[in-house]
Amino acid sequence: MTAAIIDGKAAAAALREQIATEVARLRETDDLQPGLAVVLVGEDPASQVYVRNKGRQTVEAGMLSHTHRLRDDTSETELLALVADLNADPTVHGILVQLPLPPQIDEQRVICAIDPAKDVDGFHPLNAGALANGDPGALAPCTPVGCLLLLREQFDNDLAGQHALVIGRSNIVGKPMAQLLLQESCTVTIAHSRTRDLPALCRHADIVVAAVGRPGMVRGDWLKPGAVVIDVGINRLPGEGDKARLVGDVAFAEAREVAGAITPVPGGVGPMTIACLLRNTVVAACRQAAVASRLA
Ligand SMILES: Nc1nc(=O)c2c([nH]1)NC[C@@H]1CN(c3ccc(C(=O)N[C@@H](CCC(=O)O)C(=O)O)cc3)C=[N+]21
Ligand SMILES: [Mg+2]
């Protein structure tokens, strides 16, 4: 069997189209223009690309984009002061502080300083707790929501009873992914670096979400035939000349011989992450303005 390739780029473009339509309506009928502030500390080249893409797509969707680039040696106090300004700015409905942050800054402290109503990353403990409680008002992290939207499409919106294996237990992807799948009535297993016999666990899974950051770790012979594989990994390997090559956490060529469907890297989960960020921003803006959203 050769797997269907899940086209995240196309799904993201379709979602952004819906978002742009909703933004146009909000601007017209409610005089509300959702605004997203992105904060980048330092010069990491990979982060710069994401920040640029986010900024461009925000504007293309008709939203306001504020980008703040801070020096690599920015102090935690300075960053917290900027977050406080953004919390107080009524034109800013969503705040994203790009992670990782330099070592002099305590990430958790910064995340906790963001107004939970503007926390479009869904990383604030209040939003993480709301998600764990099954509260539909939770702002949920963008990467796992993007994965879930792709999965729903594969399963015609019915994931109930599927055995889902989430590989990785980060607060950013693994844990919220597991919460979302549980909400859909999947039977969820979370695996991590200390899990025993991961290949055997994987062979039982109808759905595999790989989010470990280890290039090609999930092998073709770990998969149950027909499984749906979502590859969250974005690993930069040296490619031809000085160009980096992006690879996922799944050994793609092997996996596509066994899986039923699989996301490519690039062009899978990544574009959906950004589209979901825009969506969270629109939802957050509507709540802040006490206006009904057709997206939420
Ligand atoms: N506070 C915070 N929130 C994040 O959501 C966040 C973050 N920090 N730090 C970095 C990671 C990474 N991330 C990506 C988003 C989109 C692509 C994406 O669009 N990737 C394209 C390829 C882009 C390329 O060519 O580099 C793709 O997979 O097709 C990748 C990575 C969001 N992150
Ligand atoms: Mg992990």
TrEMBL record:
<feature type="domain" description="Tetrahydrofolate dehydrogenase/cyclohydrolase catalytic">
    <location>
        <begin position="6"/>
        <end position="121"/>
    </location>
</feature>
<dbReference type="InterPro" id="IPR020630">
    <property type="entry name" value="THF_DH/CycHdrlase_cat_dom"/>
</dbReference>
<dbReference type="GO" id="GO:0005829">
    <property type="term" value="C:cytosol"/>
</dbReference>
<dbReference type="InterPro" id="IPR020631">
    <property type="entry name" value="THF_DH/CycHdrlase_NAD-bd_dom"/>
</dbReference>
<keyword id="KW-0554">One-carbon metabolism</keyword>
<keyword id="KW-0028">Amino-acid biosynthesis</keyword>
<dbReference type="Pfam" id="PF00763">
    <property type="entry name" value="THF_DHG_CYH"/>
</dbReference>
<dbReference type="InterPro" id="IPR020867">
    <property type="entry name" value="THF_DH/CycHdrlase_CS"/>
</dbReference>
<keyword id="KW-0368">Histidine biosynthesis</keyword>
<dbReference type="GO" id="GO:0004488">
    <property type="term" value="F:methylenetetrahydrofolate dehydrogenase (NADP+) activity"/>
</dbReference>
<feature type="binding site">
    <location>
        <begin position="168"/>
        <end position="170"/>
    </location>
    <ligand>
        <name>NADP(+)</name>
    </ligand>
</feature>
<feature type="binding site">
    <location>
        <position position="234"/>
    </location>
    <ligand>
        <name>NADP(+)</name>
    </ligand>
</feature>
<dbReference type="InterPro" id="IPR000672">
    <property type="entry name" value="THF_DH/CycHdrlase"/>
</dbReference>
<keyword id="KW-0378">Hydrolase</keyword>
<dbReference type="GO" id="GO:0004477">
    <property type="term" value="F:methenyltetrahydrofolate cyclohydrolase activity"/>
</dbReference>
<dbReference type="InterPro" id="IPR036291">
    <property type="entry name" value="NAD(P)-bd_dom_sf"/>
</dbReference>
<comment type="pathway">
    <text>One-carbon metabolism; tetrahydrofolate interconversion.</text>
</comment>
<comment type="function">
    <text>Catalyzes the oxidation of 5,10-methylenetetrahydrofolate to 5,10-methenyltetrahydrofolate and then the hydrolysis of 5,10-methenyltetrahydrofolate to 10-formyltetrahydrofolate.</text>
</comment>
<dbReference type="GO" id="GO:0035999">
    <property type="term" value="P:tetrahydrofolate interconversion"/>
</dbReference>
<dbReference type="GO" id="GO:0009086">
    <property type="term" value="P:methionine biosynthetic process"/>
</dbReference>
<keyword id="KW-0486">Methionine biosynthesis</keyword>
<dbReference type="GO" id="GO:0000105">
    <property type="term" value="P:L-histidine biosynthetic process"/>
</dbReference>
<protein>
    <recommendedName>
        <fullName>Bifunctional protein FolD</fullName>
        <ecNumber>1.5.1.5</ecNumber>
        <ecNumber>3.5.4.9</ecNumber>
    </recommendedName>
</protein>
<comment type="subunit">
    <text>Homodimer.</text>
</comment>
<keyword id="KW-0560">Oxidoreductase</keyword>
<comment type="similarity">
    <text>Belongs to the tetrahydrofolate dehydrogenase/cyclohydrolase family.</text>
</comment>
<dbReference type="InterPro" id="IPR046346">
    <property type="entry name" value="Aminoacid_DH-like_N_sf"/>
</dbReference>
<dbReference type="GO" id="GO:0006164">
    <property type="term" value="P:purine nucleotide biosynthetic process"/>
</dbReference>
<dbReference type="Pfam" id="PF02882">
    <property type="entry name" value="THF_DHG_CYH_C"/>
</dbReference>
<keyword id="KW-0658">Purine biosynthesis</keyword>
<keyword id="KW-0511">Multifunctional enzyme</keyword>
<feature type="domain" description="Tetrahydrofolate dehydrogenase/cyclohydrolase NAD(P)-binding">
    <location>
        <begin position="141"/>
        <end position="288"/>
    </location>
</feature>
<keyword id="KW-0521">NADP</keyword>
